[in-house]
Amino acid sequence: MRTISRLIRRYILAAFAIVLLVLMVNGILLAGIVFRYGSKRIQEGFFPVGKFAESFTRTEDGYAPSADYDWKPHFAWAMLLSDSGEILWSEDLPEELNHPYTVPEVAAFSRWYLKDYPVMVYRNNFGLLVAGKPIGSMTRFDFYMDNDILYALLSTFGPLLLLDLGLVLIICLLLGWRGAKPLRALAEGIGLLAEGKEVYLKESGATAELAEKLNQTSRHLQQQNELIARRDMTRSNWIAGVSHDIRTPLALIMGNAEQLSRQFPPQSEPRKRADAICTQSKKIKALIEDLNLTFKLQYNAQPLRKAPIQMGAWLRRCVADFCDPLEETHSVDLLIREPAGQTTLEADEELLTRAVDNLLNNSVRHNPSGCDITVLAGITDEQFMLEVRDNGTGYPEAVLRNLSDTCTDPNAPHILGLHLVGQIVAAHGGEVSFRNDSGAVAVLQLPIVP
Predict the structure, then answer these.
(1) H helices of 195-207, where?
(2) pLDDT at 260
(3) What angle do CA 44, 49, 53 make, to 5 degrees?
(4) Is residue 340 within 8 Å of 384, Cβ to Cβ?
């Protein structure tokens, strides 16, 4: 569940980061706008009506602003009203505004608009200065607030901010929980799927499609597991049935062939045929035994009866037993490089003997005209290395491809004996390799466990 907790934590942190980022961006933009436009306006005199009013002086013709002050960049028109509402001075005054003003009219435009003209007023020593802006050039608001309300708002600003942050936190937690809840179900489903158990997730919400895919995958895997189990059971029953059913007739064939062989002279044709029947029957018996053994090793049904093996003495026994009935056309040489002969391994002696016998028999069987076989033992990189090579025809390329892990040809030849060698070595934690080098070469590497 660490993934879900990490997801919730990241979701909450991401939400906070987004909120803070938005606030920071808004603050930066607002400060930039105020700095860019506000400072420029202040420097230029955004509301210079006071300075304008104070520049007025009395002249021979009446009243006028000082010639040193240029007010026209700031206002479109201006007029100076007396206390009675008469116009004492004006310039660029629109025609509809050129008339005396009553007290109510003055009170009305002192609220910042005179016939849609934004105006500013300022009292000086001579009267009331009214300066106007063009229509639509400015928006002004009439805003006021009771001090009690203003103080109440200011005093509640801090708690209100904390409340807002609390609401944001609650919303983020709810969103995180709602977002992580379906993901938690998906994570549990994937865990069950990894354990090979059946999975059924509710197909709704934002993760409905993923849940549907997991359910389909679970059903597909369950169907495959059932098919594999039925196939393995069928294979096991078939192998067991064949082994059981063929054992009795094979024993009768071998017994009768041996009896017939003893009834004829050594070099007679009937005896040769009887001996051939015995030889082929023994091959069939060995194949059946290999078939049973490879099936057990594949499904870990063959227990390894490990015991300390003195490798030098064991190899000598293996080669001596194999050479006992060997024909003169074949020879076997055993070379043991010390300290391999004094090395002791924890292994199943019966299985290792079976592996070596399969390699030796393979050289004899595929070289009927004769060959020389060499068995070499040594220590390489803290591993016991056993090499079996001959100077015969070597392995066919199709056989080497079939023995490799990358072979995908369904029509490749099945070399049961060599495949069993690889299984036996793998069961002991080792590796085996096959190649051609002026004949067939098989190299077995077994780990030396101190």
Answers:
(1) none
(2) 76
(3) 125
(4) yes
Q: Which residues of 61-84 are buried (b: 16+ CB within 10 A; e: fewer)?
A: eebbbeeeeebeebbbbbbbbeee
Tokens representing 184 are 């938690």
The dihedral through the CA atoms of 212, 213, 218, 221 has a sign that is positive
DSSP-H helix ranges across 72-134: 103-109
Tokens at 194, concatenated? 């990894």
**How far is it, in rounded angstroms, from Cα 93 to Cα 124?**
19
Q: Which amino acid is at 139?
A: T
At 373, phi and psi to the nearest 5?
-110, 135
**Residue 205: per-residue pLDDT:** 65
* Angstrom distance (rounded) from CA 18 to CA 176: 14
As given in the structure block, the two tokens for residue 448 are 């030396």
In one-letter notation, the amino acid at residue 109 is F
Ordered mean pLDDT values, 10 residues apiece, the chain (450 residues):
59 73 67 56 56 84 82 87 89 89 83 83 88 82 64 72 76 73 78 80 73 82 79 66 68 77 77 77 71 65 78 90 80 90 88 88 87 92 90 87 63 68 86 90 87
Amino acid at 387: E
Residue 275: CA count within 13 A, CB half-sphere: 11
Say what the pTM is.
0.47
Which of helix, strand or coil describes residue 285? Answer: helix
